[in-house]
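For reproducibility, we list the full input for the VHF complex.
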Amino acid sequence: MPKTIVVKIGTSSLTQPETGQLALSTIATLTETLCNLRHQGHRVILVSSGAVGVGCARLGLTERPKAIALKQAVAAVGQGRLIRIYDDLFSTLNQPIAQVLLTRADLVQRSRYLNAYNTFQELLGLGVIPVVNENDTVAVEELKFGDNDTLSALVASLVEADWLFLLTDVDRLYSADPRTVPDARPISLISNMKELAELQIQTGGQGSQWGTGGMVTKISAARIAIAAGVRTVITQGRFPRNIEKIIQGEAIGTHFEPQPEPTSARKRWIAYGLVPTGKLYLDDGAINAILQAGKSLLAAGIKAVEGEFESQETVQLCDRHGNEIARGLVNYNSEDLQKIRGCHSRDIAGILGYAGAETVIHRDNLVLI
Ligand SMILES: Nc1ncnc2c1ncn2[C@@H]1O[C@H](COP(=O)(O)OP(=O)(O)O)[C@@H](O)[C@H]1O
Ligand SMILES: N[C@@H](CCC(=O)OP(=O)(O)O)C(=O)O
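The corresponding predicted structure, in tokenized form, follows.
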């Protein structure tokens, strides 16, 4: 059965740690592997980091730049080289590719989200391998994916992929960073989110010198992907041929089992496409109603409102400690919500002077995180 497969490769696998130069043999093997998958009839998307890393190597910079404008300039240099190398290698094997550069804004607006979906479908239908990266050169801070682990999970969710492979410089997920904790326990399988929470995995700092997110962004990417029904695997980038072995059933890397009933596409867009603009802190009763009974959020259960937002924007719903439990499209702006928080629904019209929605967030617009 043909599958849709998204493969994300990080800077740490694409470049040699000592010199920052491209790891050509890894890239060539990855190219061959993805072409093999295409020949087997699978639909393949590559999410490739490396614009900043390759740009630095090209310009002789020995450290990842911190200043935003410099990073954006360096990414413009690197992205061109990166795509040229991919196109040369894939062309040798007669495989057409496409460059797809996305910013967060492309997924926020529903029409642009659907447009991105349609473009991916066309490319995959044409047998092309899209090579995706964040459009680093124009992305602004507030509308950034920030890391390609998240971007790859959002792409996998958008196209409803069967597999997401996160290729990195460790062979799998461990109970703690194996660089600093030598006896960290390897983890082969995570069956659901509850199990993940119970494992209390330590993710340490920012990852390798050239990577951006470290393991923490891979775990949150896995969370996004499995909610969309995508089986996710963290495995070593140096051995891209393992992708084929894994699809054939070999137990390599760390596998995250997909949620049996994926969240609907619209709710996934609310949860991960949109960028939250505020926070609502809830009391225990409201948390229970949402988590256990799948109810809508009423004004009575809101303890505090943070941020400025308009009605129909997305907000995070948090417990008293600020831990996010859900997200949703809010029916009132922040100013009105400050006035009606903690109040019974029947009093809202009297307080605001107009009859608004009975719920603050209707359950159809509310997604558990
Ligand atoms: N619990 C953990 N298990 C495995 N690796 C971890 C863990 N916590 C932190 N890491 C670190 O995450 C790094 C990979 O992240 P990163 O450098 O961002 O890679 P990439 O460039 O592939 O995205 C590894 O080199 C490892 O040191
Ligand atoms: N978009 C950036 C990469 C961001 C990123 O997530 O990097 P990495 O942690 O190496 O996957 C680039 O191309 O350099």
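Residues 340 and 348 are 6 Å apart (CA to CA). The radius of gyration is 22 Å. Both points were considered when choosing residues for closer inspection.
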